[in-house]
Amino acid sequence: MTHTIRRKSKAEPAPPTTLFLFGAHGDLVKRLLMPALYNLSRDGLLDDNLRIVGVDHNAITDDAFAQKLEDFIRSEVAAKVGKGDQMLDPALWAKLAKGISYVQGDFLDDSTYSALAAKIAASGTGNAVFYLATAPRFFSEVVRRLGSAGLLEETPEAFRRVVIEKPFGSDLQTAEALNACLLKVMTEKQIYRIDHYLGKETVQNILVSRFSNSLFEAFWNNHYIDHVQITAAETVGVETRGSFYEHTGALRDMVPNHLFQLLAMVAMEPPAAFGADAVRGEKAKVVGAIRPWTVEEARANSVRGQYSAGERDGQPLNGYREEPNVSPDSTTETYVALKVMIDNWRWVGVPFYLRTGKRMSVRDTEIVICFKPAPYAQFRDTEVDELQPTYLRIQIQPNEGMWFDLLAKRPGPTLNMANIELGFAYKDFFEMQPSTGYETLIYDCLTGDQTLFQRADNIENGWRAVQPFLDAWQEDASVETYAAGEDGPKAAEDLLTRDGRVWHGLG
Ligand code: BG6
């Protein structure tokens, strides 16, 4: 049975706003943003006068644009907005659709921005959010033009906000340049940098579990924790994204952003309040405390892998070099394993091992907090050596939940021990509504809560911590291989074995 504790006030509908979706015909808008807006509308969290304005270069009428979105959601992503026979509700969609319109325009043409100004003037509210669901090369260009057109000027009655989503640069230097460009035309309070991992319930729950259950704090330090493993294993390959992935690779794609968000949630100090400044300040501090490896240390503490041809369930899988738009002699990594150390009082001496890869055996995103072994003196005559270490496993996806893997006495006259599990599975406690993972993020942006968004220093600290790995690999871009459908290269096992540890089994 669950007893629900709510915040004192029930969530109110977001204020009336004009929400501009740049890149209106792209996948992000169709697959995630519009379904998320529909779900927010279903839950009564949007103002009846929310205006949604698609902005893109193709010509299409307002009605045809709304219809296209509706058709796409019905045919491709119905499970994100409904269950069983309760898919997209026509009446609910109609309510949202009456506020949908479209501006045809080139992102680099000033007249596009005059058209946006006219939309705001006609909307009855000065509040506007500009969501850049575009290729990253447009971020600076669009923002600069929004600034010159005066569209980012706020008044006490009207907010102006910009949403962008990773990649925020491709290394420390480009990330700093992007932040400088954004901050030239608006303040940090107007910028909402999305990391979609922070939209996941299981990620948000790390903070709640840690800071609302005092027992966690008792062991959450280097006295009791031996090491931490953070894994994001994917079964998908690079699919149609070869040309993007070729110059990105697994490190840039996943580590300074998603994996460091998980690391920050696990490792940060308690914030003084659950507000944007306090939470983001603690996150910036802990990522800033990651030890800067020298180039030699970075090389020794990292493994780059690339999938070669393999199979899953008897079906052949391409190697990365055979994927579309990938060079046949590419050395881009599709897998990375790293060891990082956090130099602060809580974590000194506790390694954090991170790994992520495409085309692995299973999809599994998890954090494993591995406890130090107990002094086993009293169990000397048992099969102590065969016992697994004890740990807490936070399962981000799939099979969301949290499990302690502990030791217990196996029933019987002799003293034998066994590994047992104490667990919490979300599905046993909560009815999960269909969702995209963007609902909270969009709602928070419309209501002005930046807690789940990244500040400039969060981004730059992340790049600063991975820069030694990028530098090391620039000198030596050799890559280990692993067969598609397997769990990464042998060298990744060695990274832990040489420290006397092993990766937690996937799945
Ligand atoms: C994206 C990466 O940011 O995150 C993708 O660009 C990756 O390559 C994806 O597949 C993983 O997200 P999730 O939510 O499926 O773990």
UniProtKB/TrEMBL annotation:
Name of this protein: Glucose-6-phosphate 1-dehydrogenase
Record-annotated active site: H258 (proton acceptor)
Listed GO CC annotations: cytosol
Residue ranges of domain Glucose-6-phosphate dehydrogenase C-terminal in the record: 208-504
Phylogenetic lineage: Bacteria, Pseudomonadati, Pseudomonadota, Gammaproteobacteria, Pseudomonadales
EC number: 1.1.1.49
Catalytically driven reaction(s): D-glucose 6-phosphate + NADP(+) = 6-phospho-D-glucono-1,5-lactone + NADPH + H(+)
Family: Belongs to the glucose-6-phosphate dehydrogenase family.
Pathway in which this enzyme or protein is active: Carbohydrate degradation; pentose phosphate pathway; D-ribulose 5-phosphate from D-glucose 6-phosphate (oxidative stage): step 1/3
GO molecular function: glucose-6-phosphate dehydrogenase activity; NADP binding
Residue ranges occupied by any Glucose-6-phosphate dehydrogenase NAD-binding domain in the UniProt entry: 21-205
Free-text function comment from the UniProt entry: Catalyzes the oxidation of glucose 6-phosphate to 6-phosphogluconolactone.
Basic and acidic residues bias locations: 310-324
Residue ranges of the region described as Disordered: 304-328
Protein's GO biological process: glucose metabolic process; pentose-phosphate shunt, oxidative branch
Entry binding sites for NADP(+): D106, F107, K166
